[in-house]
Amino acid sequence: MSFAALQSAQVRRAAAQEGKRGFRAVLDAILRAMAAAALSGALGAGAFYGYRWASNAPAFAIREIHFSGLAHASGTELLARSGIKVSDNLFRADLLQAARGIEAHPWVAAARLTRKLPGTVEVNVLEHHPAALVQLGGLYVMDEQGRLFKRAAPEDALDLPIVSGLSRTEPRRELRLLHALHFLDVWRGAGFAVSDLSELRLEDDSAVTLFARDGDGVQEVRLSAADWPLALRRLSSMRGALARRGEHAAKIDLDNPARPAEAAATLAEKR
């Protein structure tokens, strides 16, 4: 046999072996796919029948619904809005729909519901944090993001400053509300209590007029928008100087563009 014939036979044998290996690889892949499909089908059927059993089993009836994060909204009212009831099946309860119902409450910013086996629903509520009341024909509650989220009601029992000087149709209303929130932050940072501030009126020239408790009276104070921290330090100094003299100012004007270092005070009548 010649070298060429021998080489040709070896090539044919190698090709045949390679073909067998390829066939076995394809066959193995087919068998693995069939096994995976069978297992998946079995698991799917098991999951289906397992869910069917659990969603009807008395062992998974809802026994408790816990609320957390509540300060203003009541759990009873939120439960009614959720549509979930004690004795409902834990797996059949539509938690997304329940969350939407709870979030329709004016005090609720967001709600998250989770299942806890065997029969508890945990409801975590994030409420709006009220920062001020806003006068817009009626009183509305504004949160710390500047959102007006509800009309104020007596039962809210909120002791908050009133922001005034705005109109419903004002195009820059949202920006000016943020302006008011910034002032409240500066007021706190200067050491004044927000509870002492009864009204914050936003003026058209970006100045503010505030009505704040000082001692036994209410004081009207006008501030420019130039440097609130400095203006409030001057206000504190003026109050201290007047108190040392046994006097009280009914009105203080710290908005003098021509002479910003000066202030005018109208003394209250002594009783």
Secondary structure: elements and pairs:
Blueprint (H helix, E strand, L loop, with lengths): L2 H52 L9 E5 L6 H8 L12 H9 L4 E9 L3 E8 L2 E7 L1 E6 L4 E4 L10 E3 L8 H17 L7 E6 L5 E7 L2 E7 L4 H17 L4 E6 L9 E4 L4
Parallel strand pairs: 1-3, 4-7, 7-8, 10-11
Antiparallel strand pairs: 2-3, 4-5, 5-6, 8-9, 9-10, 11-12
Helix pairs in contact: 2-3
Give your account of this protein's structure.
The chain folds into three domains: 8-48; 58-127, Ubiquitin-like (UB roll); 130-267, Cell division protein FtsQ/DivIB (Rossmann fold). Helix content is 38%, strand content 27%. The protein has helices spanning 3-54, 75-82, 95-103, 173-189, 228-244; strands at 64-68, 108-116, 120-127, 130-136, 138-143, 148-151, 162-164, 197-202, 208-214, 217-223, 249-254, 264-267. Strand 10, helix 5 (228-244) and strand 11 form a beta-alpha-beta unit. Helix 2 (75-82) crosses helix 3. It is elongated, with a radius of gyration of 36 Å. The relative contact order is 0.06.
Concise description?
With 271 residues, this protein is an alpha/beta fold.
